[in-house]
Amino acid sequence: MKIAVLPGDGIGTEIVAEAVKVLNVLDLDFEMETAPVGGAAYEAHGHPLPESTLNLAKQADAILFGAVGDWKYDKLDRPLRPEQAILGLRKHLGLFANFRPAICYEQLTHASSLKPELVAGLDILIIRELTGDIYFGQPRGRRTATDGHFPGAEEAFDTMRYSRPEIERIAHVAFQAARKRSKRVTSVDKANVLETFQFWKDVVTEVGREYPDVELDHMYVDNAAMQLVKAPKRFDVVVTGNMFGDILSDEAAMLTGSIGMLPSASLNAQNQGLYEPSHGSAPDIAGQGVANPLATILSAAMMLRFSLDQPEAADRIESAVRQVLAQGLRTADIHSEGTTQVGTRDMGDAVVAAITKTTIKS
Ligand code: IPM
Ligand code: MG
């Protein structure tokens, strides 16, 4: 088994180092190889996703990814910006199924911007289609308008599109995930306005007939954004397209009050996966040793479960994380009165200690 480790930019290096530390104490048989990605790769090789990094990622069974991006690269041409690295990995590896759980940890209920009773026990799984939609649709670009409200004016355009197989496969992923949970899927669309999402709704409905045991409902994206802050616990599995999923997953993550706690997985048809925290590179706090490594550590757990077939090891990491929270240890982002504030490295060490302690006991 081979893991490609791509720390990236900003806090990426610090948080990935902690996840690697945790993986190393599990005593499992895998090889890890590190490569630069994003702005770090642009500095080293002149490209955010160099051939060597892409090849390593392709050969690996799983990819542990930190984060990419820094304001200092905002002026670069789009193909050279750090974000292109993650988009390129998704595209080249066909990582179409993005799992973004939004779980509200019992000890962190008060950290939410919503009232505790609205979020206590919250456990939503957002399944975002990741390789289609307006993110990748062609054509796109800038040109001189020949029609519209201002013919002759400079304009920009993108293309929203989904093919039947693209919708079918992500719908299957969602229904199968729901079978392992409370058997409810909400498909989010904008069928009242967009042709693409009327088609989305039709195809998801068809696929749903193959899962009579799973309850399917449909919601427009604007209403879904509202329901997420009004009554988030009404959701279980949410399946949606690339752009709506980008937006709703950030919203859902923030409901838990702890985006620094949320892992994610992006899988292809072969179950090869890229695992990354749901948060970004946070250049404002990079290098200070204060970032929360738990989302990345929990991403490593997801990696063990989904791509490396090591569910027990995944359980050990997740229960170690619950233990350190119960001990009252908190990084700055989730710190509150009565808890102990620790830095990135101490948090990683605490998880390692919790894992080794359980090993000795068992
Ligand atoms: C995400 C991010 C990316 C996206 C960016 C960094 C390209 O926001 O993973 O949600 O838009 O998909
Ligand atoms: Mg996003």
What distance lies between the first and last C-alpha atoms, to the nearest angstrom? 26 Å
Number of helices: 12
Largest sheet: 10 strands, mixed
Which CATH class of the largest domain? Alpha Beta
Q: Report the CATH architecture of the largest domain.
A: 3-Layer(aba) Sandwich
List the uncertain runs: none
Number of domains: 2
Query: What characteristic shape results from the CA principal axes?
Result: globular
- Strand portion, in percent? 15-25%
Number of strands: 14
The radius of gyration over CA amounts to: 21 Å
How confident overall, as mean pLDDT?
95
Q: Give the names of the bound compounds.
A: 3-isopropylmalic acid, magnesium ion
What's the CATH H-level superfamily name of the largest domain? Isopropylmalate Dehydrogenase
* Helical/strand content category: alpha/beta
Structural overview:
It catalyses: (2R,3S)-3-isopropylmalate + NAD(+) = 4-methyl-2-oxopentanoate + CO2 + NADH. It is an enzyme of class 1 (oxidoreductase). Its cofactor is Mg(2+); Mn(2+). Keywords: Amino-acid biosynthesis, Branched-chain amino acid biosynthesis, Cytoplasm, Leucine biosynthesis, Magnesium, Manganese, Metal-binding, NAD, Oxidoreductase. Catalyzes the oxidation of 3-carboxy-2-hydroxy-4-methylpentanoate (3-isopropylmalate) to 3-carboxy-4-methyl-2-oxopentanoate. The product decarboxylates to 4-methyl-2 oxopentanoate. The structure is a single chain. The chain is an alpha/beta fold. The protein folds into 2 domains: 1-96 and 268-362, Isopropylmalate Dehydrogenase; 97-262, Isopropylmalate Dehydrogenase. Helices cover 40% and strands 19% of the residues. It has 12 helices and 14 strands. A 10-stranded mixed β-sheet has the order 2-1-3-12-11-4-5-10-8-9, with helices on both faces. A two-stranded antiparallel ribbon has the order 6-7. Helix 1 (12-24) links the parallel strand 1 (2-8) and strand 2 (31-34). Helix 6 packs across helix 7 (195-208) and helix 11 packs across helix 12. The longest helix is centred in the C-terminal third of the chain and has 18 residues, at 344-361. The radius of gyration is 21 Å and the shape is globular. The two termini are 26 Å apart. The model has no long low-confidence stretch (mean pLDDT 95). Magnesium ion is lined by residues 246, 250.
